Amino acid sequence: MFSTPWAFLLLLPWAVACWRIWRTARTKGVVFASAQRRFAGIKPSFRQRLCRLLPAFFLLGTLFLIVGAAGPRTLLSREVRSADALAVMMAMDISGSMRALDLSEGRNDVTRLDVVKQVFQKFVAARPEDLIGVVTFGGYASVRSPLTADHRALQHLLGGITIPGEKGDVDERGRPISQEELLTAIGDGLAVSLKRVKDAEPKTKIVILLSDGENNTGAVTPLEAAKAAAALGVRVYTIGVGSTGIAKVRATDVFGREVLGDMRTVLDEETLKKIAEISGAEYANVREPEQMEAFLQHIAELETTQVERQIYARYASQARPWLLSGVMCCLVAASLLTAWIRRPI
User: Fold this and answer.
1) The pLDDT of residue 24
2) Considering only CA atoms, which of 83, 75, 71 is closest in space to residue 313?
3) Residue 46: exposure state from Cβ atoms within 10 A (0-12, 13-18, ≥19)
4) Are 320 and 74 spatial neighbours (Cβ–Cβ below 8 Å)?
5) pLDDT value, residue 42
6) Is 59 helix (H, G, I), strand (E, B) or coil?
7) pLDDT value, residue 254
8) Looking at the structure, do residues 21 and 100 belong to the same domain, yes or no?
9) Do 292 and 323 reside in the same domain of the chain?
10) Helix or strand or coil: residue 36?
């Protein structure tokens, strides 16, 4: 087997070179103006006879180099093992209500979004075989990461997700100024997630949809998106964060000082339940980080697909002998060419 078989495309110009040399030899009788034609009646010397082999050494050397460039190698070990592989798209609400501090166990510096990111990072770390992606939605949906097996990069990305206008854009009552933060496009977030997960390689495809609000904008309604998920065979597990009521939030007063304010949150549990029911999945309301971790673990236990993966771990490269032989033949050809050019007339 070869590591870079595309290198064999170089055989096309190599074959053209062979044909041109053969044609020249056939029409002129000798290649590179042999000594017999230049010195009629004089017996060719040993060096002159060697010069006739110049094309052969050149072609043989380049052939060896092409084979070496293709990377011949020998398989030393092969491992076949079973693994649980899923395609998971995580759809996260990043609207302004995710500033609320009710999941932080009394701390005033940890928002709902902070807790969600930490829990999702743990989930990613526990699923090394899965393809996982991230979609965020507030007033509109955005793909933060397509399905990927590079979980290290995904962890870094999750840590950098923020709420739009999070840097103090709130009024003296602690309410977000940005209208984009006040909107929640649950249907669009789910629709974008389905588009990204529907063609994934693993047979089992799921979406984990997390929201702490109600759908109040977007081109696609949540139930329309749920029906599309059911048609595609994608189960949508929904998570409702917090509850309807008043929650504490960090705010900035008119003097630029950070204070605690009140924010009214509205959680549409009925819609989230219907999304899960239509797609054949489950819904959970979480008000503590531990509840969210337990539900994600429950999802992992329900959604298991055993697949066999072949892992080729060790190879022995066989390229060196080919490359050395090619270099040696080319050096011999170069020496013969030099001898032919410099010989006395």
Assistant:
1) 76
2) 75
3) exposed
4) no
5) 52
6) helix
7) 66
8) no
9) no
10) helix
Total H helices, total E strands in the chain: 12, 10
List the chain residues with pLDDT less than 70: 25-51, 76-84, 105-107, 165-182, 253-256, 304-314, 339-345
- H helices of 126-234, in order, are 151-159, 179-182, 186-197, 222-232
Token code pair at residue 270: 């009925």
Number of domains in the chain: 2
Question: Are residues 244 and 281 both part of a single domain?
Answer: yes
- Which pLDDT does position 104 carry in this prediction? 75
pLDDT at residue 170, rounded to an integer: 47
pLDDT at 172: 41
Token pair of 155 as six digits? 């962890």
**Are 17 and 59 a contacting pair, CB within 8 Å?**
yes
Residues 279 and 131 in one domain: yes
Residue 41 within a domain: yes
The pair of three-digit structure tokens given for residue 142, joined into one six-digit string: 């955005």
Cβ atoms of 124 and 154 within 8 Å: the answer is: yes
pLDDT on residue 171:
44
Question: Rounded distance, CA 68 to CA 256, Å?
Answer: 68
Give the span between the Cα atoms of 2 and 66, in whole angstroms.
12
Domain of 165 in residue numbering reads as 82-308
**Residue 40 to residue 259: CA distance in whole angstroms:** 106
Q: Which of 88, 26, 24, 18 is nearest to 58 (CA)?
A: 18
pTM over 0.70: no
Tokens of 15: 């074959």
Residue 137 resides in a domain: yes
Q: How many CB atoms lie within 10 A of CB 224?
A: 13
